[in-house]
Amino acid sequence: MKAIVQRAYGPPEILRIGEVDRPAPGDGEVLVRVRASSVNFGDLVTTRGVPYAARLVLGPRRPRHRVPGHDLAGVVEAVGPGVTRFGPGDAVYGEVVAGAYAEYARVPEKFLAAMPGGLSFEEAAAVPVAGNTALKSLRDAGRLRAGQSVLVNGASGGVGTFSVQVAKALGAEVTGVCRTRNVELVRSLGADEVIDYTRADFAQAGRRFDVILDLVGNRSLRELARLLNPGGVLVLSSGGGGTWLGPMGRILRAVVMSPFGDRTLRSSVVGRSAGNLATLKELIESGAVRPHVECAYPLGEVPDALRHFEERHARSKIAITV
Ligand SMILES: NC(=O)c1ccc[n+]([C@@H]2O[C@H](COP(=O)([O-])OP(=O)(O)OC[C@H]3O[C@@H](n4cnc5c(N)ncnc54)[C@H](OP(=O)(O)O)[C@@H]3O)[C@@H](O)[C@H]2O)c1
Prior knowledge:
alpha/beta; Quinone Oxidoreductase, Chain A, domain 1; Rossmann fold; 2 domains; 6-stranded parallel sheet; 26% strand; binds NADP nicotinamide-adenine-dinucleotide phosphate
């Protein structure tokens, strides 16, 4: 089968399309004919092997997994022993540790869910990592409740576009931060207020929030914590940081600083969850959440897709068509 193959760490160009053996589903596993995937921050980390601390998990000298890619949507080709929820022909979506940038992927049944109705494969593949991050950051880490106010810094990106919609679905009053060309997009997602960061500084707007979700990492923790109402929560889900620790440095500082008076600083470290995929399916089918895809690249052009993502101004999600 065709797959993107990674033999070393480096810039996106080191990823090459090649032929590898088609995986066979083991106990409790499903073989999915992948129809689409999407690009996430984690793909940059896996490709470059930066921050270096991540190599403790990814492989110290070279990547442990030869085929990268986390998000997938496709059709069940075959199932291994013990699989009860899916059979050949079912449309599914989910998240894998690695191996989604390929024609076929082996996925534990517990990390798959039925694909939401009414979506293309590209739209469905945009959901798992970004939608799950939005849900866990706001509902679980932020404990966002109806009637509360939330600020989403980085509202127009992959995680941000889901976050604005999830926050509205939770009944919150949402302020999104993005640059000029994305103001209308963020408003169309349901944001009550949109701050164009090229024209106004949200930290100087005199506003306070119950929850702040930071997806950019361009403000100090103190600056963000000062914008919280008493009892408020700052949720960090942002990249950036140095080449050794990356976002972990900022997250560790937040752990040390929290609780910040009567404010709480929390990181949102997200694990795979089929339960959340089912919740996202419901939100999508009810019309509360709609995945947005800026563009789709064919499998052979994953390096170009990663280059696009690396500019850090993607407008919603970048999909990969397999
Ligand atoms: N915790 C987890 O498990 C987890 C999982 C996934 C992602 N993440 C983190 O979430 C973050 C966002 O990921 P993503 O996939 O959404 O990235 P993305 O699609 O690249 O989005 C980044 C967004 O940041 C915005 N941005 C850039 N500079 C900005 C500024 N000065 N002020 C406000 N917004 C700015 C851009 O919007 P404009 O073009 O409008 O500027 C862009 O849309 C990443 O840092 C990643 O590490 C965490």
